[in-house]
Hints:
Layout: E1 3-11, E2 16-18, E3 24-26, H1 30-35, E4 45-55, H2 62-77, E5 82-86, H3 92-102, E6 109-112, H4 125-136, E7 146-150, E8 153-156, E9 161-162, E10 171-172, E11 180-183, E12 186-189, E13 210-214, H5 222-227, E14 233-238, H6 249-258, E15 261-265, H7 283-288, E16 292-293, H8 299-311, H9 316-323
Parallel strand pairs: 1-4, 1-5, 5-6, 6-7, 13-14, 14-15, 15-16
Antiparallel strand pairs: 2-3, 7-8, 8-11, 9-10, 11-12
Amino acid sequence: MVRRIAVIGMGGTIAMAPGAGGGVVPALDAADLVVAVPGLAELDLEITARGLRSLPSPSLGFGDLVALSAAVRAEIDAGATGVVVTHGTDTIEETAIFLDLTVDSPVPVVVTGAMRAPTSAGADGPANLFAAINVAAAESARGLGTLVVMSDEVHGARFVRKGHTSSTAAFVSPGFGPLGLVVEGEPRLRGTPRVPLRLPAGPNVDQLRVGLVTVALGDDGELLRRGGDAFDGIVLAGLGAGHVPAGMVPLVAGLAARVPVVLASRTGSGPVLRHTYGYPGSERDLLDRGLLHAGFLDPAKARVLLLLLLADGADRDRIASAFEHYR
Length: 327
């Protein structure tokens, strides 16, 4: 039986061409991308392609991700042995964690994109798509959750982040490293247990508002003071190991008494601490005042998880329990 890999296009740099007003804009559909990849015809695979969106990834919203999750699950239900999503790189890590949480199947789901448009010298899209299809077809990729494949590296959704604005080696998994490599087209993976947490991607996901607020030197919390009431939940990207200036503490504690406030770190690597520091505004002080611990999830991923939990009606205890999977 020939294995079928379904490719779903969402837009992004991998699908862009020069626009009339200058710069590149989304222009190519998923079928165009597949046709342009050398070597696919030699693989013993049936490859189908469909376009779902044609957008730069900063313009995608949670409604689009709900539709994408449904499309991925529909392809799996229809017999796909692997699914590849082509996507813009600016928000690829958020889409990856969204799919990781909402697609309950061992079938490999792989997200990929490009740092250089197809018309650029050294365009990386075809190589990334070729590698992604090979990973999606690999038996060793089953059960690993959603993966991100870029520059012949395979990253887990809960670890990966974009670490450079323009390098083709932009994607990294700080503190953990990639789950494997693609060598001469062959995926060489080391398995890691997927988080046993699944959440529905219901239509109410895009009706909630979860804020992500980054703390900075000398911050007095005025942004939170003015906008805090607009949010159903908040992720606070704290300083260092999860800290805020002492003057922000009463405001942050007051918000945490009203809505879930998740404490993450703005550093880009490493978990929020729990009990090392004890001064006002330290991680210990904030957790004692009711903030929730993000573990090693970066602020953007913590926001996706909190949003899905709130959309599913989770109370504070359930939210805290869910984030414990990422400690």
